[in-house]
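Here's what a typical entry looks like (Excinuclease):
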Amino acid sequence: MLIKKVCAAIILCCGGIISAQAADETHHFNFKEAVERAVADGTLDGSVKFYLAGTKSGGHIIAKGLVTNKKTNGFAKTAENACDHVLRSALIQFQNTAKAKGANAVTNLVSYYKSKETQSTTTYECHKGAAIAGVALKGDIVKF
């Protein structure tokens, strides 16, 4: 009987540790630097410019309030590496959409995790758990 109680306590404690490690943590990384790295290594082709909300306005809005919500495997990756990778996926989607619509910019970008807008003029928001990292962005497709 005592052994059963000890085993149950161990399982309960281990489950709590695993649950705590799996929880999403919010990270904020420099947006401009991430975009520059992606253009420099060819991930983005540079034909579409990206502007966080509050940093650029003007042009003709072709599509307003588009959302991308990307996830990637974050297992055994640092938050910075996983978040950089998933941001690239989100920006590639925006780049492809903009080009298909004849646009050359994405403006008014905000983080949009779980449909909650978070605006910054310098950083993007990424959520990373033990296995998954995710970036959600909302922005306008624009022709300058």
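The chain is about 35% helix and 35% strand.

More examples are in the samples folder.
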